[in-house]
Amino acid sequence: MALSIGILKDIVTAEQDDLPVDPILQILGVRKLNSKQEGQDRVRLVLSDGENYYTSSMLGTQLNEFVKDDFIEVKAIVRVKQYTCSIIQETRKILIILEFDMVKTATEQGEKIGDPDQLSDAIDKHEEMKKTLKKAPLNNNYVKPNGASNGNKPVAQNRNAGAPTTASGKTVFPIASLTPYQNKWTIRARVTNKSDIRHWSNQRGDGKLFSMDLVDQSGEIRATGFNDAVDRVYDLIEKGKIYYISRGSVRTANKKYTSLKNDYELSLNNDSEVELCTDDCDLPDINYDFRQIKDIEQINKDAMVDIVGVVKSAAEVSQITTRSTNKQVSKRDITIVDQSGTAINATLWGKEAESYEEYANSNPVIAIKGAKVSDFGGRSLSVLGSSVMNINPDLPEAHELRGWFDNGGNNQEVASLSGQRMGVGGGVFKTISQIKDENLGMGEKADYFNVRAFCIFLRKENCMYQACPGAECNKKVIEEDGAFRCEKCERTYPDFKYRLILSSNIADFSGNQWITSFQDSAEAILGTTAEKLGKMQTEDEDKFNRTFEDAAFKLYNFKIRAKMEAYQDEKRLKCSAVGAQPVNFRQESKRMIESIKALEAM
Question: What residues have CB less than 8 Å from 445, skipping those under 6 apart?
């Protein structure tokens, strides 16, 4: 198939909304540019139209897999279906390919076409070309290649994403066309999620931010507003409504904190504009990329996934104290299943955990966008503040799951990816004698399991220490002239915070075991916070002693981490309580009934 001879001149001199359609070009160079941010490598291309070649061309990062698979090679011929041209450094124009069809592979082509000259990417040269160049009519009658454009490989984005449109007198760019190389743009998008305002404080000062997820026909992107932008636009934004947004900056997205299918994210600043769209337009509500639960076993820790499933069981809501803020937050564990015959635990936090109460006695279908994958004791999920959770959504996948579950799926035997991590009060329980009998903690990795036992002794001595009050630091401080020095933060504070390290002996019918409980689990056992306990120790010793007495000889569900560790050249089995709750007898009765039913079905 013939190249689009001379079309590169037309491309680099055209305005964004007047770019030539479907140019056919040959690849003369492929070079990988390493990025400092993991997973964000860029690929530079040299493209030729047979008459000229252009060196300032990039491959959209979503297409990098084609280079890894050797699908894009030197001398291959491609039809560029979606692309954009952006000005960078005020003097250069860069061509970014977002979607392409393979016309001929490098092997099929075998040689370079013509003897092309280099085409300059300097803006002043473009202006000279505009004045002197007589444009030939564009040849849009290209013959489409047979079959799929690139084997069975998917295209990256909506095919029309690179073409701006006009609405209410504004030039509107599709989300999928945004890159850090663009200075001026306006998008029209629906808000699918809006976070609460979050505050931070560190050595550089105080600040606040919020984020929102945006979607249009071409794709989705996250936008984050900081400080003054929070004051200006936060109250204007309503979830579900459509807005024109402009004058923000486009930057590389941190994939660790978002599951949105976009390499970039927006940052809103003092100059950013947000305007409610009153036009009649049809934009999607939310984009899901659902994964079956069984596939999560192969997904890396801390990755973000979208899942839809039926809630088979839900624990009671509980309160824990977070390490970062030292504040109490609500927490609830639920178990989700789908047609793959697999179950996984998901943890709901804060308002989500509390508002789920109305569904606690039912089995709703739940769709979660952006759940975080954990490898703690197997595989589990955490529903973050940035996640979007919909209960009984009106989705084809949800209706299909509802039918499956109500017509026998609820009785189907499932395998759990969460293994021992079923939440305190559920999952695999061990007796204390089994810790030794089954050599738990003796392997290369720690073992996690649940134990139901009584606290028969709690050691009061050295149960607390004075720690750095910094939000992200729990290092022990050194007192110096009435102030407190943290060597880790290299700062001196006027005060400190208490941290708990509680050593206790637990027992069941089979034996007893010493365990160590840290802040959250220790506070659950003692029924008070570290700060209150520290105050008791200095001001009311009798009340301090009674707190330990009241906690003794009570039945708890412990989530135990067991690992053999070396101490002074001697190996010892260390058991730590990573979770502790007083036994909820209502929930325990449900668990026992389910166990009995499982035994009857065998």
Answer: 563
* pTM of the full structure: 0.47
478 C-beta neighbours (distance < 10 Å), count: 12
The verdict on domain 432-463+501-592 having CATH code 2.40.50.140 is yes
User: From CA 209, how far away is CA 62, in angstroms rounded?
Assistant: 28
Could you tell me the CA-to-CA distances from 192 to 36, 195, 215, 246, 362 in Å, in that order? 31, 10, 7, 18, 26
Fold held by 293-416: OB fold (Dihydrolipoamide Acetyltransferase, E2P) (2.40.50)
User: According to CATH, what is the number of the domain 7-152?
Assistant: 2.40.50.140
As a three-state string, the secondary structure of 480-532 is ECCEEEECCCCEEECCCEEEECEEEEEEECCEEEEEEECHHHHHHHHCCCHHH
Residues 6+ apart with CB under 8 A from 333: 314, 315, 345, 346, 347, 348, 422, 423, 426
pLDDT at 41: 65
pLDDT digits (tens, 9 = 90+) for 492-501: 888 899 999 9
Torsion angle (degrees, nearest 10) of CA 544, 547, 553, 557: -120
Q: Read off the pLDDT of residues 32-48 as tens digits, 9 standing for 90 and up.
A: 776 544 445 678 889 99
